[in-house]
Structure formats: structure tokens, C-alpha cells
Design a protein that fits this description.
It comes from Photinus pyralis (Common eastern firefly). The chain is 36% helix and 19% strand. The chain is α/β, with parallel strands linked by helices. The structure holds 2-acetamido-2-deoxy-beta-D-glucopyranose (5 copies).
């Protein structure tokens, strides 16, 4: 009896912590410092380099937008537009999202779109065309869909929101291997201030570039020359207030691209615009084995398709263990 009571108390404490603790991060990379550290490359990039980069980013345009692919009324009634970057071959992942947390798009104030780049594989192209025809929720960017082009994908996302969904309140970028506790997301959004210049998610402080050229995340000095990254929000899921989108987009076009899309957009670019990165503990990176973890989280990264279904059921399941939580009210 006593231990049940203790579990309850601990759970409530953790819940309160995860719900309300949106902490500002220290920012040694103030715009002044950023300039000193050379985080504002447009000022000192060689002309040719700058041109190359501009050419590169100008390809981050969405070349196809079909009927129904702009937000209704430019997003006027939309609380959150969720853009899910996805690779051409990830059709079953997209399907799993549509059938689980993507169901939240049945609400009038939520929209979900998948963002895919181009592929030379004609089978995949045909499949995507069919998928697009059926669900009307696919955006296609004007770039080849590769790991190296993920930053272009994020820039495309901004461009699309700026042009087709400018009146929505929030943009959530959420990968297709993320479980989203959609009801809790809505709860969090209702607590945020739209005018705040901030990007929300799991903040990484003082991370260092991977200089080992045998790893997938290798970053050569040519791409990023400093020993530490500015604070940034981890890529699988982050929230951007839509009023900041145009500014971010324009600024992206003036920066040298780094392939780590999260560090580029929410680190370098946001720092230069004096946009804060606010840490939300409920944006989770991996599975903890605490009881009721899923109910408390807003998103959990690296969740297999099969588990998306299980989790989606679980958040509505008021089993005994979680009775101390008020799940989302
Ligand atoms: C950028 O594109 C223009 C044409 O759009 C081209 O003339 C120029 O050579 C390109 N610059 C680089 C560095 O690729
Ligand atoms: C797509 O990108 C190509 C270059 O890769 C460019 O020639 C073309 O104009 C772009 N299309 C649109 C609609 O922006
Ligand atoms: C095209 O994609 C399909 C489905 O993923 C795959 O089975 C096929 O091998 C691919 N074809 C080529 C030429 O890569
Ligand atoms: C995308 O990535 C591929 C290979 O990583 C590269 O060849 C291509 O130029 C990149 N950019 C665009 C705009 O497709
Ligand atoms: C990786 O780095 C080592 C040492 O810096 C160098 O000798 C090697 O050629 C590099 N390999 C590649 C594929 O760039």
C-alpha cells in the first residue's frame, strides 16, 4: 500500500516536471559571439562559395503542390501543421503514421503532410503518385532524396509553410519514426505563447562535430570548422511558431549549408536570428523503462511501426499503473 502510494507521488512529480518544465538554455552563442565565431558566413564567404550555396539552397523548393495541398484557408484555423519528412521507400512508415497518431488530423485545427524528395526509381515514383492521389497529403521537394539533402528538405518545409500555410499557429517537424502523443502535444501548444521567439524540443548543449571519417555523421572541417555546435534542438521533432518561419527560411538561404538539418536550422540559423531554443523534457529520445512513460511523453524517437500501434492504444488506456496521472487534462 505504502509503495503504491510512493509510486504515485514519484509519478506525479515526474509528470509535473515533464509537463511544465520548459527551461531556457544558456546561450554562449549570442549574436555578438556568433559573429565573432564566424557563425554568420554570408559576411565572410568567398563570392563563389556563396553563389554555390545559394544555388544549392534555391533547389530546396517544392515543385509540386496539388489541390488540397495547401492548408485550408492558408492555415487560418490551424493550431498545428505537422510536416513529416519521409524517404520515398518509407511507405509503410507513412501508412503506420496515418493509422495511428496521424489520426489527429481528423481535427479541423490539425493538418499533417509528408515531405519527400525526388527519386530516380520509377517504381517508387509510381507508388508515391498513387499514395499522393489516395491521401492527398504528400509534398514533393525539388531535390534528390538522400541523407545528404536532409537540410534541403527542412528548408523546403519552411518554404512550403511560408507559402501555403502562413496563418497556422505552430509548425511541428516530426520524423516518420517518431511516436507522437498527439493529445499531449495539443496540451503543450495551448500553454505556449505564440509571440515568443523560440523553437521547442529536446535541446542539445555544447555538442561536438564528429570528426571520425568512418562514421555516418562525419562532419569535415570544410563543412563546419568550429569545435562545438551552438545549442540546437534535436531533429526528430521540434516546434516552430509559424510567425518565425519566413524569417528562418530567408536566413537559411543566406547561410552555408551544413548537412545536419537540426543543427543548421535550430542551431546556426536560429542563433543568428536571436531565436531561443527551449527544452521540453517530454520530447524523448529513447525509451526509459519508467512506468507510464508513454503517457508522459510528447514524442518518442525511434519507434518501430508495430510499436506505433501499441503506443497509440496505450495512451488511451487508463490502466491501473497510471491512475495517478491525469493523462491530458
Ligand atoms: C549558380 O547558378 C548560376 C545560374 O543559375 C550559374 O551561372 C553559376 O555558375 C552557379 N554558380 C555556382 C558556384 O555553381
Ligand atoms: C527544380 O530544380 C532544378 C535544378 O535541380 C531546376 O532546374 C528547376 O527549375 C527546379 N524547379 C522548380 C519548379 O523550382
Ligand atoms: C526501386 O524501389 C523498389 C521498392 O523499394 C525496389 O524493390 C527496387 O529494387 C528499386 N529499383 C532500383 C532500380 O533501385
Ligand atoms: C542531393 O544529394 C545528392 C547525393 O547525395 C547530390 O548528388 C545532389 O546534388 C544533392 N542535391 C540536390 C539538390 O538534389
Ligand atoms: C580518414 O581520415 C584519415 C586520417 O585523418 C585519412 O588517412 C583517410 O584517408 C580518411 N579517409 C577518407 C575516406 O577520407
Amino acid at each position: 500500500m505504502k509503495s503504491v502510494y510512493m509510486v504515485g507521488v514519484i509519478n506525479i512529480v515526474v509528470l509535473l516536471y515533464m509537463t511544465f518544465w520548459v527551461r531556457p538554455t544558456l546561450n554562449p552563442f549570442s549574436p555578438k559571439n556568433a559573429k565573432r565565431l564566424g557563425l554568420d558566413p554570408p559576411l565572410n564567404l568567398p563570392k563563389l562559395m556563396r553563389q554555390f550555396i545559394l544555388n544549392k539552397t534555391s533547389n530546396g523548393e517544392i515543385y509540386a503542390t496539388l489541390n488540397g495541398l495547401s492548408c485550408p484557408k492558408g492555415g487560418e484555423d490551424i493550431q498545428v501543421v505537422i510536416v513529416v519528412p519521409s524517404a520515398p521507400f518509407r511507405d509503410t512508415a507513412r501508412m503506420a503514421v496515418r493509422r495511428t497518431w496521424g489520426r489527429i488530423a481528423a481535427r479541423n485545427d490539425v493538418s499533417i503532410y509528408f515531405l519527400i524528395g525526388k527519386t530516380s526509381n520509377s517504381t517508387l515514383r509510381e507508388n508515391i503518385e498513387a499514395e499522393r492521389y489516395t491521401y492527398g497529403d504528400i509534398l514533393i521537394g525539388n531535390f534528390t532524396d538522400t541523407y545528404n539533402n536532409l537540410t534541403l528538405k527542412s528548408i523546403s518545409m519552411l518554404r512550403w509553410v511560408k507559402e501555403y500555410c502562413p496563418r497556422a499557429k505552430y509548425l511541428l517537424k516530426c520524423d516518420d519514426d517518431v511516436f507522437l502523443n498527439a493529445p499531449r502535444l495539443l496540451k503543450l501548444l495551448s500553454q505556449l505563447k505564440i509571440k515568443r521567439r523560440a523553437i521547442y524540443g529536446r535541446v542539445f548543449n555544447n555538442r561536438k562535430p564528429m570528426r571520425d571519417n568512418t562514421t555516418k555523421h562525419f562532419v569535415p572541417y570544410e563543412e563546419y570548422k568550429f569545435t562545438v555546435y551552438p545549442h540546437f534542438v534535436n531533429g526528430p521533432a521540434y516546434i516552430i511558431p509559424v510567425p518565425l518561419v519566413e524569417e528562418l527560411y530567408n536566413s537559411c538561404l543566406r547561410h552555408k549549408i551544413v548537412r545536419l538539418e537540426d543543427m543548421f536550422l535550430t542551431g546556426i540559423v536560429a542563433t543568428n536570428l536571436n531565436i531561443r531554443r527551449l527544452h521540453v523534457e517530454a520530447f524523448q529520445n529513447g525509451l526509459l523503462s519508467l512506468p507510464c512513460f508513454i503517457q508522459r511523453s510528447i514524442c518518442i524517437h525511434r519507434v518501430r511501426e508495430r510499436m506505433l500501434f501499441e503506443y497509440w492504444q496505450q495512451i488511451f488506456d487508463r490502466n491501473k499503473k497510471c491512475k495517478y496521472y491525469l493523462v491530458f487534462h
